[in-house]
Amino acid sequence: MGDTAHAELTVGLIADPGLPLELAEELKSWLPQRLASIVTDADWDVEVESLTLPLDDDGGVKLNANSKMLRDQRNWNYLVYLTDLPKYVENEPLLATVNAGYGTAMVVLPSLGLVRRKGLRKLVLQTVDALHAANSEDREYAPGESRFTRLFSRKDGSDDAESMDEFETGKGVSGRLMMQAGMVRNNRPWRLVPQLSTSMAAAIATGAFGVFYTSIWSMADYLSPLRLLVISLLSVAVMSTWLILANGLLERPRGVHHKERAITYNTATVATIVIAVAVMYVALFCIILAGSLIIINGQFISAELGHAAGFSEYINLSWLSASLGTLAGAVGSSFVDEQAVRRATFSSREFERRQISLMDKDEDKSEERAGSDS
User: Fold this and answer.
1) Same domain flag for 162 and 19
2) Which of 212, 230, 209, 210 shows the shortest CA–CA distance to 220?
3) Domain that holds residue 25
4) Which pTM does this prediction carry?
5) Domain count along the chain
6) pLDDT, tens digit, for every residue of 70-102?
7) Are residues 115 and 21 in the same domain?
8) Last residue of some domain: 115, 142, 177?
9) Among candidate residues 118, 152, 177, the one where a domain is terminated
10) 53: nearest Cα among 85, 78, 8
11) Both ends of the chain: CA-CA distance in Å?
């Protein structure tokens, strides 16, 4: 057995641009060594490529339809696709699929939640193991190494060979919450902040009033921390709502389980926007605080307030001014490019899926108008 020549097998890791590609690059050096320690009848190589596979009319990835061409062109034995596009199977968040006939597997990153590197490594390793097991009559494992438990134990019930994917899903409420968190993580809310430069300019201009107008000093000094907190939360909520409605970011999915998908997609969108606005709020607060410490003399503010002023008074002033500035920033967001906001809000594949959905709706409206005209 020890004299048997090892087969040389190549795994192609293709990934959507952005975070999926970053994670795939991290797997490139780790995966061959780990595969070699588990599956001892082959020498492994891993190649990584950024590739955006086309979507079908339902917003699903055409993986199996393109697998033979991709594998033949690149001389890959197995193909594993990392995507940031969320997907449901049997009304549960999809974790991964394996199709032994096509030699393909797909791992859905949002379903892995926020902290995903350990889970991703385990899942990719198991998908490759499952593909190799299906194509090997005799498997050799390292001494003392037990065979991996097969994740992919269920079929989707279709007789179509292209649809005969084995799959695993996230279970119960925890699986749904993990996918929700993963979708927000994939969206990377901080990317939206640079697109809000117009809003930030309006917010800074309005917040500057707090630095120069003594009436705002007095109001900030009078309000309790709880009241200031409520005002700040209200300002973030107002600007978030404005951004969502003005840019048409809410979605109304159609088809099976459309209500649950609407809740999932829109909750992730709202969370992404709120986090982005909160980041902008904190940045605005820091800018105003720095400006007030530089511009406002401590003795002068004490004289205006009628009592000794310390750092807490500067904090309260900046807190109220940032809230007022954020409210003004909501108006400034009206001048932000709608497409730029959508691109910054969603991951690349989620943006593409939503664009397809919008095109379908526009076509339906055109057909309805044409029907009414006739």
Assistant:
1) yes
2) 210
3) 7-177
4) 0.75
5) 2
6) 888 899 999 999 988 888 887 888 888 888 888
7) yes
8) 177
9) 177
10) 85
11) 77
